[in-house]
Amino acid sequence: VQLVESGGGLVQAGGSLRLSCEASGIPTDDYAIGWFRQAPGKEREDLACISASDNSTYYADSVKGRFTISSDYAKNTVYLQMSNLNPEDTAEYYCAADPYYATLDSFCTAFYTSGVHWGQGTQVTVSS
């Protein structure tokens, strides 16, 4: 499994950014894929996840209403649209996937498990 993130960069507070995650080599049609982030000195946290089988989604409370996850399976790409960004959103953003997940919620919230594949990350910096 290979995941390649892109779209990070520097944005002013209040601005928007769209991240992309191109996936390849996933061995199943029903997999979970999502976005996570880690700020300096903080633990990695879940943001939003989507199921490939039915497009159901999960959002962390901290990003509901501001971030939207979507997918284009023809392009094997998952997106994270982020709006109304603030400096607290500054972090390294990661895409992860699990081809054999149990439930979408468990994948998104208990992501430190074996079997989860990670991308290399893309940096998002929000200036005040």
Structural class: mainly beta
Average pLDDT confidence is 95
Major sheet? 7 strands, mixed
Strand content: over 45%
Number of helices: 1
- Helix fraction? under 10%
- Anisotropy-based shape: globular
Q: How would you spell out the order of helices and strands? A: EEEEEEEEEHEE
What radius of gyration results from the CA coordinates? 14 Å
Uncertain segments: none
CA(first)-CA(last) distance: 37 Å
Task: Give the beta-strand count.
Answer: 11
Write the layout of secondary structure elements.
Blueprint: E1 2-6, E2 9-12, E3 17-24, E4 32-38, E5 45-51, E6 57-59, E7 67-72, E8 77-82, E9 91-98, H1 104-109, E10 117-118, E11 122-127
Parallel strand pairs: 2-11
Antiparallel strand pairs: 1-3, 3-8, 4-5, 4-9, 5-6, 7-8, 9-10, 9-11
Summarize the structure.
By secondary structure, this protein is mainly β.
For the structure shown, list the relevant keywords.
single chain; 128 residues; mainly beta; seven-stranded mixed beta sheet; four-stranded antiparallel beta sheet
Word description of this protein:
The chain is mainly beta. The chain is 5% helix and 48% strand. The protein is built from one helix and eleven strands; from the N terminus they run E-E-E-E-E-E-E-E-E-H-E-E. It has one helix spanning 104-109; strands at 2-6, 9-12, 17-24, 32-38, 45-51, 57-59, 67-72, 77-82, 91-98, 117-118, 122-127. Strands 2, 4, 5, 6, 9, 10 and 11 form a seven-stranded mixed sheet that branches. A four-stranded antiparallel sheet has the order 1-3-8-7, with no helix packed on it. The model has no long low-confidence stretch (mean pLDDT 95).
